[in-house]
Amino acid sequence: MIFTRQPFSPDDPELLILSPELNTKVVETVLNGFKRWGLAYLFFNWASKQEGYRNDMYAYNAMASILSRARQNASLKALVVDVLNSRCFMSPGAFGFFIRCLGNAGLVDEASSVFDRVREMGLCVPNAYTYNCLLEAISKSNSSSVELVEARLKEMRDCGFHFDKFTLTPVLQVYCNTGKSERALSVFNEILSRGWLDEHISTILVVSFCKWGQVDKAFELIEMLEERDIRLNYKTYCVLIHGFVKESRIDKAFQLFEKMRRMGMNADIALYDVLIGGLCKHKDLEMALSLYLEIKRSGIPPDRGILGKLLCSFSEESELSRITEVIIGDIDKKSVMLLYKSLFEGFIRNDLVHEAYSFIQNLMGNYESDGVSEIVKLLKDHNKAILPDSDSLSIVINCLVKANKVDMAVTLLHDIVQNGLIPGPMMYNNIIEGMCKEGRSEESLKLLGEMKDAGVEPSQFTLNCIYGCLAERCDFVGALDLLKKMRFYGFEPWIKHTTFLVKKLCENGRAVDACKYLDDVAGEGFLGHMVASTAAIDGLIKNEGVDRGLELFRDICANGHCPDVIAYHVLIKALCKACRTMEADILFNEMVSKGLKPTVATYNSMIDGWCKEGEIDRGLSCIVRMYEDEKNPDVITYTSLIHGLCASGRPSEAIFRWNEMKGKDCYPNRITFMALIQGLCKCGWSGEALVYFREMEEKEMEPDSAVYLSLVSSFLSSENINAGFGIFREMVHKGRFPVSVDRNYMLAVNVTSKFVEDLRTSCYLTCLIKDGRIPILAVVSRI
After folding, report:
1. pTM of the predicted model over 0.85
2. CA distances from residue 726 to 713, 716, 767 in whole angstroms, order as listed
3. 669 touches 699 (CB < 8 A)
4. Spatial CB neighbours of 711, under 8 Å, sequence gap ≥ 6
5. Residue 587 host element (H or E)
6. CA 740 to CA 738: how far, in whole Å?
7. Per-residue b/e over 118-142, b at no fewer than 16 CB within 10 Å?
8. Is the dihedral of CA 16, 19, 20, 21 positive or negative?
9. Does residue 108 contact residue 140 with C-beta atoms inside 8 Å?
10. Which of 627, 611, 710 is nearest to 664 (CA)?
11. How do residues 549-579 score in pLDDT, each as one tens digit?
12. Is the separation of the CB atoms in 244 and 252 below 8 Å?
């Protein structure tokens, strides 16, 4: 044929001869003769361009049918445009066929749109059949529109068309697709009352009931259909049984299964698989085995899927012994592995780790462990007692380790090796991890050697487990030796372990060793990390002083490493604490110049440092920089500022900052209250300090003895002895009088002396002493 030749040319002389003979009947016949949609479409496009030829609706329908079956939706959409542009007239039947082609391809929007356009253009006057075709197209969409269906039904009614079986069937389908059960039942009842019920309509509703989980209603409907001699087909029965099993209604599934058999329908292996799966899920062992034996009697060979369900759905050893006894002749190596997997999962789920261990020992011939399992005996009697695979053994070993039975896990591992199996890396990893959690680094290193001898390559996880254990034990010599092994395998040490080791060394006063260790790590070819280096800097500061930490920091920078925000913060905090805020400020500016954003904690260190050195204005300028850096001051920021402002004799500004803090929903804590109260007292604002003292009490924050004594001293300085003594008595009654080792003890002694010397308070003080509320004081001798 001309169109099958390669390459095809529209200028072929034979085509030029054929062109004048073209008519729609010829085109339709030729199109229906093509077996490939591409060639048909090529011919159709060629014919459409020939002079004197014009497609009619039958030619369009022939092409639409081909494209619809081939699911060539893009070409089908183009055909819709061509039909409208051609303005060809069409009969309601031909137009209905075109709509059905669009519906079969899922082009519901296009079907609805072209229906309206053709009607508006006067190319066709739709009849009831055309509308039925449109309703059928809508019902085939996954996103069926109830509103669209009901709108089309109203149009039909307004046009005076009567509804028939083919009208209501797609409507029922749409209501079922969208879960509108009440509307679906209403349509179904109308179909039933008119005598239009058939197998297809019945199937739609029965299957929908099943999907909605209304198993009982589905079954009632099936029984009603039987009374009317309407039989569902085999495929529908299978769908329903699947649905009943899914809804855990095994009883109904089996009733339906029995109906099938009474009607002479023989179940296939897929249906048996579903039923046995449902029985296994509900742990109905005897029924599942009974059905399995029925399969064998019927001559259908049970597949591995059914065997797998039987083996994997039961975990008790007694159940699995029964299953194994029945199916032993059909199981292969993979089925035996499924048996082991199910058994081990049962042991583990029931915390029977020792039993899982004994089972494996039985398989390996170590009968003295706990007697021989019935399953093991059965497998050995049929020569199917193979050892579990690596995955199953790994599960048991992992559980032994989790149950803190590491030694049993090691024994099992050695027995596995003696039986000729090569353990997987996961087994070694689990045991080594367990050993390391118990601090058994020497044993884990020994097992690492065995692992190498067995030809099993360690993973990065393996070596880092041991590395972490050595770090925990502060064994930096052993850790360095392990790093050499890591370098051999091309693995990187986990930074968390390196950092932990450095911190441990520093905590034990071995900051110098920590620094040396980091140098050795770099010497082994591993890149340094600022987290570990920062830990070393912090350790040096605490052990050797700020200058040693600063020296290490500069060495790190000189070696090409870029310190991060945390490293800078550690140094800035230490310098501020050592009253070297000017140096801290240089570091702060250096950090910012490198594009690093200071944290709120770093700003707080700077503000606290400036305030303690009396440079309160520089502290306030840091607040401005914080806002510019889009950082919000926190309660620590405000506490340092309030303390510094009071210390600089600026109590009114301190109160302003206090109010600002509360206005920003940053609420003062106990330390902030004490800083303000004591600061106001030092500035002689004892009355204001008392107000905040009472507020602190209302918030149930307990002031310490220093706050009480600051108030007392402030009132005494202003010669308000009554107010001062009132606070003093509160302190004593609340048990806040400082003990002899307290730094505030001598201040308490001094104010007590003043109250003893004053006639207005001495008698009350004598009573407090006699009541034992004040400890023995040297000043008592002055009474």
Report:
1. no
2. 12, 11, 15
3. no
4. 677, 681, 686, 689, 690, 693, 724, 727
5. helix 581-593
6. 7
7. beeeebbebbbbbbbbbbbbbbbbe
8. positive
9. yes
10. 627
11. 999 999 888 887 888 899 999 999 999 999 9
12. yes
Q: Round to whole Å and give the CA distance between 194 and 189.
A: 9
Taking every pair of Cα atoms in the chain, the longest distance, rounded to a whole number of angstroms, is 141
Span 82-140, pLDDT tens digits = 999 999 999 999 999 999 999 999 899 899 999 999 999 999 999 999 999 999 999 88
The two tokens of residue 782 are 């002055």
Residue with tokens 């929007």: 109
Rounded to whole angstroms, the Cα distance separating 30 from 780 reads: 127
On the question of a cis peptide bond just before residue 7, with omega within 30 degrees of 0, the verdict is yes
Rounded Cα gap, residues 542 and 344, in angstroms: 53
| Amino acid at position 629, single letter | D
Q: Kindly report the backbone phi and psi dihedral angles of residue 738, in degrees, each rounded to the nearest multiple of 5, phi listed first.
A: -65, 145
Token pair listed for 610: 């400036």
C-alpha 33/C-alpha 214 separation (Å) is 48
pLDDT in tens, 211-240: 887 878 888 888 888 778 888 888 888 888
Spatial CA neighbour of 498 closest among 540, 431, 522: 522
3-state secondary structure of 395: helix
SS3 assignment, position 673: helix
**Residues in contact with 365: Cβ distance below 8 Å, sequence separation at least 6, in sequence order:** none
Helices 600-612, 635-647: inter-axial angle, 10-degree rounding? 10
Residue 144 — very low, low, confident or very high, per pLDDT cuts 50/70/90?
Answer: low
What does the chain come to in residues?
A: 783
- Whose structure tokens read 């800035």? 572
Question: How far does CA 720 lie from the centroid of its chain?
Answer: 66
Interatomic CA distance for residues 510 and 504, integer angstroms: 8
Please report the sign of the dihedral spanned by the C-alpha atoms of residue 273, residue 274, residue 279, residue 282. Answer: positive
Neighbour-count burial of 20, counting CB atoms closer than 10 A to its CB (0-12 exposed, 13-18 middle, 19+ buried): exposed
* Residue 39: partners with Cβ closer than 8 Å, 6 or more residues away: 3, 4
How distant, in Å, are the alpha carbons of 194, 228, 249 from that of 218? 21, 16, 12
Per-residue pLDDT of 578-588, as tens digits, reads 999 999 999 99
The CA-atom distances, in angstroms, between 513 and each of 439, 494, 504, 622, 667 are: 22, 20, 11, 37, 44
Cβ neighbors of 382 (< 8 A, separation 6 or more) are 328, 329
Decide if 726 contacts 733 (C-beta within 8 A).
no
Closest to 306 measured CA to CA, from 292, 296, 320, 316: 292
Give the model confidence (pLDDT) of 598-640 as tens digits: 999 999 999 999 999 999 999 999 999 999 988 999 999 999 9
